[in-house]
Amino acid sequence: MAERHFYAASMDYVYLIQEVHERKKFEFVETLLTFVYAYFTFYHQCIYLILILFLVFFQGHEIKKDFDPFMKDLQSKIQKTRTNFDDFSEKLKKRMSEVQKQEVPPSISKGCKEGYLFLLEK
Questions:
Q1: Mind giving me the DSSP string for 8-22?
Q2: Fewer C-beta neighbours within 10 Å, C or N terminus of the chain?
Q3: Cα(56)–Cα(61) distance, rounded to whole angstroms?
Q4: What sign for the dihedral angle of Cα 46, 47, 48, 53?
Q5: How many CA atoms lie within 13 Å of 40's alpha carbon, on the beta-carbon side?
Q6: CA–CA distance from 5 to each of 98, 100, 118 (Å)?
Q7: Which of 97, 99, 77, 63 is nearest to 33 (CA)?
Q8: How many whole angstroms separate alpha carbon 29 and alpha carbon 45?
Q9: pLDDT by residue (tens digit) across 12-21?
Q10: What is the pLDDT of residues 3-51, one digit of tens each?
Q11: Quick one: pLDDT at residue 28?
Q12: Rounded to an integer, what distance in angstroms lies between the CA atom of residue 67 and that of residue 61?
């Protein structure tokens, strides 16, 4: 019984480690992309309020136009990575439940105590 609990705990541990590594792939990039969108939104809104900085508006608008395809592509890749993570996580949970449902084969060391040698020991 202790072996079964050990296997279950070790599988949970491996699952959590894998989840952390997979999440690192997209959470950092999502945060960075959110920052870039906020940056461009800030400059886009500030320009309408402050007409003195027309040059900054023009440059900010041009930079946004240059980065728009890249940011949309990055956003779609992040979404795909998150979807892959969700699918992988679901498959791993299903596999873990299958393994836990499997019957643990009897250990070889427990063995059967019968036969010629066992009789000699008595």
A1: HHHHHHHHHHHHHHH
A2: C
A3: 8
A4: positive
A5: 15
A6: 15, 9, 32
A7: 77
A8: 24
A9: 888 889 888 8
A10: 778 878 888 888 889 888 888 887 888 888 888 778 777 766 555 444 4
A11: 82
A12: 10
